[in-house]
Amino acid sequence: MSPTNASTNASSARPSPAEVSRRLDxxxxxxxxxxxxxxALRREVLELLLLRQGSAKAYDLQDDLRQRHGRVAPTTVxxxxxxxxxxxxxxxxxxxxxxxxxxxxxxPHDHPHEHTMMLVxxxxxxxxxxxxPAATEAIGRALQTDAPGFRAMDIEIKGLCAACQSxxxxx
Length: 171
Ligand SMILES: [Zn+2]
Ligand SMILES: [Zn+2]
Fold this sequence. Notes:
The chain is α+β, with helices and mostly antiparallel strands. 43% of the residues lie in helices and 17% in strands.
């Protein structure tokens, strides 16, 4: 099985309104098929994340929401993100303390807790979601020697993206 690689958009253009609503409709249908409900608020948080080119911190989304609706409780955004993560429509990248839209489109994760591997560029912050079960399993197996009982789930790898490697260092 070959990995499917696609950039999770940290540096790509803002999606068109048609693209955003297509993604939202698809997410809603996916949730419905799983017996879950993409409520108006959850849908809006996903929309805001898409409008931020697929990657944002929770407080950015909270700001966006506040601009549209006035005061918003901090838990509002977190609860919506929590749901979106359960549905694997969104993933959290701990390294950057941010949230990214899943890049599996139109084919979603097969099951709700499929492991993800995130390649994070230390310089520009671009996040690339990679799906390579063999690599994830290999890491899990290798860990059994060093850390028996530790179960690898989501993996984040820090490095430099191709663009940053060929760009002159800025400072
Ligand atoms: Zn994903
Ligand atoms: Zn980079």
